[in-house]
Amino acid sequence: MTKEEETYLSIGQNLEGAQQSQMFGKPCFKVNGKAFMSLFDNQLVFKLTGDAHSEALSLDGTQLFDPSGKKRPMKEWVQVPFHYHEKWAEFARSAMEYVNNL
Fold it and tell me: Which domains does the chain carry?
């Protein structure tokens, strides 16, 4: 298991109410049946809004998530490289809270 996978699992398994699942054939965590965090190409992808979305996108190397690679990014989903793994848990909590309140 890679350090990215270990970090992803540790974060997700420590969020009360989060369930492991799949999204686009990739591992993800969901709350109430809705995905809020996924592991994609050894980076974490978070469904964010507001200040958390802005903060994530302000980090060098982050981008809107484009799983198809066809320049059709998902506006609320931000892909954050492992370089910022110390922020992953914070983004995961924000994403889970956002999705849980939808």
Answer: 3-100 (3.30.1460.30)
